[in-house]
Amino acid sequence: MPVTTPLCLLDLDGTLMDSAPGITASAAQAYRALGLETPSDAVLRSFVGPPITGSFVAHGVPEARATEAVRAYREEFVTRMIADNAVFDGIFDVLHDLRGAGVLLAVATSKPVVYARPICDAFDLTDRVDAIFGAPLDETPSSKADVVAAALAEFPDAGPVLMVGDREHDVLGARACGVETVGVTWGYAAQGELEAAGAVELVDDVRDLAAVVMRRLGTR
């Protein structure tokens, strides 16, 4: 693989897919299962993207019960991860254009890879990218930086590399690995979140994403 082969790492939830309905409903069910007060809709929406364990601990679940919360969440999520999910309009065109420009494409998600793969299969994403990377299913702590590092290890000769994501943890995890991030605003970030985290550019319309990525990677 020539060193001039550019690589684009793509977040899944909030970047390629509108997955909020299934994630928020599953998180709410986990609180009910633990007998804890369910957070507001706005707080539940913030669960979309970051590692789920940290979100529970940050929003009222005692650390000692975090594993219990994650298990309750996953019991519900497996029933919703396909039914309550959709690819954002225009994403297939973005992937087609980037591949046509010679860009390697890899999904890099904080979601456990055992969920990410069937989701990508179900929504016709798998054959449109070159690899799928995600977190382990067990309780081993995993960050977005770990996922990005795994992707870079799989494509050691690729470059330049760019991350595309919708939340601050995408930006910070990629930066920890020396990779810049283009932020997309159709996802689930709070106002100003991506800018504060250090995204190098924001994209407001899916139709503009391919052109921005190609410009950043120097393929056009």
What does this structure look like?
With 220 residues, this protein is an alpha/beta fold. Helices cover 44% and strands 14% of the residues. It has helices spanning 20-34, 41-45, 52-58, 66-77, 91-100, 113-122, 144-154, 168-176, 193-197, 206-217; strands at residues 7-10, 104-112, 131-135, 161-165, 180-184, 201-203. The chain has 10 helices and 6 strands.
CATH topology of the largest domain: Rossmann fold
Architecture per CATH nomenclature, i.e. the level-2 architecture of the largest domain: 3-Layer(aba) Sandwich
Strand order, largest beta sheet: 3-2-1-4-5-6
What Rg, in angstroms, do the CA atoms define? Answer: 17 Å
* Low-pLDDT runs: none
Q: Helicity, in percent?
A: 40-55%
Q: What is the name of the CATH superfamily of the largest domain?
A: HAD superfamily/HAD-like
* Highest CATH level, the class of the largest domain: Alpha Beta
SSE blueprint:
Blueprint (H helix, E strand, L loop, with lengths): L6 E4 L9 H15 L6 H5 L6 H7 L7 H12 L13 H10 L3 E9 H10 L8 E5 L8 H11 L6 E5 L2 H9 L3 E5 L8 H5 L3 E3 L2 H12 L3
Parallel strand pairs: 1-2, 1-4, 2-3, 4-5, 5-6
Helix pairs in contact: 1-4, 3-4, 5-10, 7-8
